[in-house]
Automatic annotation (TrEMBL):
<feature type="transmembrane region" description="Helical">
    <location>
        <begin position="101"/>
        <end position="126"/>
    </location>
</feature>
<dbReference type="Pfam" id="PF07662">
    <property type="entry name" value="Nucleos_tra2_C"/>
</dbReference>
<feature type="domain" description="Concentrative nucleoside transporter N-terminal">
    <location>
        <begin position="8"/>
        <end position="91"/>
    </location>
</feature>
<dbReference type="Pfam" id="PF01773">
    <property type="entry name" value="Nucleos_tra2_N"/>
</dbReference>
<feature type="transmembrane region" description="Helical">
    <location>
        <begin position="181"/>
        <end position="206"/>
    </location>
</feature>
<dbReference type="GO" id="GO:0015293">
    <property type="term" value="F:symporter activity"/>
</dbReference>
<keyword id="KW-1133">Transmembrane helix</keyword>
<feature type="transmembrane region" description="Helical">
    <location>
        <begin position="6"/>
        <end position="22"/>
    </location>
</feature>
<dbReference type="GO" id="GO:0005337">
    <property type="term" value="F:nucleoside transmembrane transporter activity"/>
</dbReference>
<keyword id="KW-0812">Transmembrane</keyword>
<keyword id="KW-1003">Cell membrane</keyword>
<feature type="transmembrane region" description="Helical">
    <location>
        <begin position="421"/>
        <end position="441"/>
    </location>
</feature>
<dbReference type="InterPro" id="IPR011657">
    <property type="entry name" value="CNT_C_dom"/>
</dbReference>
<feature type="transmembrane region" description="Helical">
    <location>
        <begin position="59"/>
        <end position="80"/>
    </location>
</feature>
<feature type="transmembrane region" description="Helical">
    <location>
        <begin position="29"/>
        <end position="47"/>
    </location>
</feature>
<feature type="transmembrane region" description="Helical">
    <location>
        <begin position="317"/>
        <end position="339"/>
    </location>
</feature>
<dbReference type="InterPro" id="IPR008276">
    <property type="entry name" value="C_nuclsd_transpt"/>
</dbReference>
């Protein structure tokens, strides 16, 4: 039944993209079919490799490699604790430590962003990340037939953010076709940066471990695998959805291939680590400030809605005060059910999806962590939500991309603004597609 519902969900998402396509006759259905196949294969190796290994042991090897990579994020969290405890003392110790004072977001989660940004800068300085991106993008380009520039940008988004990834193709942005530019935007919307991925592992691991009686490292490993899998699957998903919504009708300059040249701005590894830490600190402060403001605003609007629902008698009809999350849940519940979420969880899942789009994925993951802690969601829904929220597709990202990508190619700013809403839609569909595969194989 899960597989049938999953197929219906995938077809429905593709149908939505087709309806809003700006050139239905130019859609490359071969690319779409291969892209979906890549996602399905990745989903099987990520979620069902143990079953495959039962038939033939080597089929389990990709999963072993994947688990090793995912465990890297757990190790990062452990090392971050060392640095955080040096600065903040016991406040930096999470629930896994006997002397922990409790969960403190500012002292336990935000430092993860700083350390991971520093580590990423070192890997970039020595060309390690570039090598991985180049290998993955070449394989995907050969399979899908996409241009070198758009493929490089999308694959880079697996590891870095939506403003950093376009830097690898900066010389080509001015000459990109409209379809390529839309792919660059969609790739940024459909993925998350490595630094915040580690933060989400920390956010979700602790409540899941407590709710299910697991060691926190086991729970963190589980979410690291899911989030990494979601990011990997989002790359082909972004290309598929983008090429349906905005098919290629021009001649890309980098149709054959493109070299990846990223200028080194740091003198050595130590300089890279320092500058990366500075960048990470800025990001962590921005995240903290954004969460403080958004959650406070959400509480204020909920207070106003609650007052209104009390005096109008709506509270009596509902049995509780009206909230923004409740309204978003009603709006997005049908979509949640369509992709395979049990109807009993559809409103809660819909609320998470709406929160991600209207506010951002960080607030949505915080709400998911609260739902996990309160045992409000089934294991399948938790898994699907982890995939569905794993992307920057929200309204504020439009401004971020106009500023970031537009800064690299000022002549394309008007097009970036024009494509903004559609890129959020495309990124959301890509995330929902990866979640559908996760639910199908759960």
């Amino acid at each position: 039944m899960d597989i049938i519902r999953g197929i219906i969900g995938i077809v429905s998402l593709l149908g939505l993209a087709f309806v809003f396509s700006n050139s239905k006759k130019n859609i490359n259905w071969k690319l779409v079919g291969i892209g979906i196949g890549i996602q399905f294969i990745l989903a099987i190796f990520i979620l069902k490799a143990d079953v495959l290994a039962g038939f033939w042991a080597p089929l389990g090897w990709p999963m072993i490699l994947f688990q090793k990579v995912a465990s890297f994020f757990v190790v990062v969290l452990n090392y971050t604790t060392e640095g955080a405890s040096f600065i903040f003392g016991r406040l930096g110790h999470g629930p896994e430590h006997e002397d922990s004072l409790g969960v403190f977001f500012a002292f336990q989660v935000l430092p993860t962003i700083v350390f991971f940004a520093s580590l990423t800068a070192i890997l970039y300085h020595y060309g390690i990340l570039q090598f991985i991106v180049r290998m993955v993008s070449k394989g995907m380009q050969k399979l899908l037939g996409t241009s070198g520039a758009e493929t490089l940008s999308v694959v880079s988004n697996i590891f870095v953010g939506q403003t950093e990834a376009p830097l690898v193709v900066e010389p080509f942005i001015k000459k990109m076709t409209k379809s390529e530019l839309f792919v660059v935007m969609t790739g940024g919307m459909a993925t998350i940066a490595g630094g915040v991925m580690a933060a989400y592992v920390a956010m979700l691991g602790a409540p899941f471990a407590e709710a299910n009686g697991l060691e926190i490292q086991v729970a963190q490993q589980l979410f690291a695998e899911r989030l990494l899998g979601a990011s990997l699957m989002a790359a082909p998903a972004a290309l598929v959805i983008a090429k349906i919504l905005f098919p290629e009708d021009g001649e890309p300059v980098t149709k054959g291939d493109v070299s990846m040249n990223v200028e080194k701005t740091d003198a050595n590894g130590i300089d890279a680590a320092a500058s990366g830490a500075g960048t990470g600190l800025q990001l962590a402060l921005n995240v903290g400030a954004m969460l403080l403001a958004f959650i406070a605003l959400l509480a204020m609007f909920n207070g106003i809605l609650g007052w209104g629902s009390d005096i109008t008698g709506i509270t009596g009809l509902l049995g509780e005060s009206l909230t923004i999350e409740m309204m978003l849940g009603w709006v997005f519940a049908p979509i949640a059910w369509l992709i395979g979420v049990p109807w009993s969880d559809a409103v809660n899942m819909g609320s998470l999806l709406g929160t991600k789009i209207v506010l951002n994925e960080f607030v949505a993951y915080l709400k998911l962590a609260e739902g996990v802690s309160a045992a409000q969601l089934s294991p399948k829904t938790i898994a699907m939500a982890t995939f569905a929220l794993c992307g920057f597709a929200n309204f504020s990202s439009i401004a971020i991309q106009i500023g970031g990508i537009g800064g690299l190619a000022p002549s394309r700013k008007s097009e970036l603004a024009k494509f903004g809403i559609k890129a959020v839609f495309a990124g959301t569909l890509a995330n929902l597609m990866t979640a559908t595969f996760a639910g199908m194989l759960f």
